[in-house]
Design goal:
single chain, alpha+beta, 7-stranded antiparallel sheet, 7 strands
């Protein structure tokens, strides 16, 4: 089979390539700046200050702020490993509801392996962190619950989504 030349920036339309591989690659660009972003967090504001929302991405990322003393109750993320980087404030990463584990300070990088219980508690100045992980499997929206439970992976996705939302507790954002 003869080799075909590949041009920089060209899209290979060879038979057998997945449709996603035929889409021209997104270009690198700056999406946000932490300094101004951190300045937008109100004293009592809780939640995502920024989310990665680029179409066709393989990652999810969030910059999350917890006000002083706020907690993310213990939960388990079954679908993906999460990388957490503390960008401001302080807190505690814990394996339990009281978060009595590891100190979180700016610059600390934490690996949260899938299926490992974790909880967070913000310190006196609040806690702001970046999370990055591969995109979670899509949920089957609109399918009857009985079909979701019978289909295995879809029900696992639904369970994961329920755990991510905290089921009425301190809602995790990862």
């Amino acid at each position: 089979m003869p080799l075909r030349p590949r041009l920089t920036g060209a899209v290979d339309h060879s038979p057998g390539l997945a449709a996603a591989a035929r889409v021209p690659a997104a270009q690198p660009r700056i999406l946000a700046e932490l300094g101004p972003l951190l300045g937008t967090a109100g004293v009592q504001q809780r939640g995502a200050l920024w989310r990665l929302s680029e179409p066709g991405r393989g990652l999810d990322a969030n910059v999350v702020h917890l006000p002083a003393g706020a907690r993310v109750d213990e939960h388990v993320e079954e679908a993906v490993d999460v990388l957490l980087v503390v960008v401001a404030g302080s807190g505690v990463l814990g394996p339990g509801p009281d978060a009595t584990g590891s100190a979180l300070t700016p610059g600390v990088i934490v690996w949260l392996p899938r299926a490992a219980p974790r909880s967070l508690r913000a310190g006196d100045q609040g806690l702001t962190y970046l999370t990055v992980h591969t995109r979670r499997p899509a949920l089957d929206i609109g399918r009857p619950r009985a079909l979701q439970q019978a289909s295995g992976p879809a029900s696992a996705g639904a369970t994961t989504a329920a755990r991510r939302t905290g089921a009425g507790r301190g809602a995790p954002v990862e």
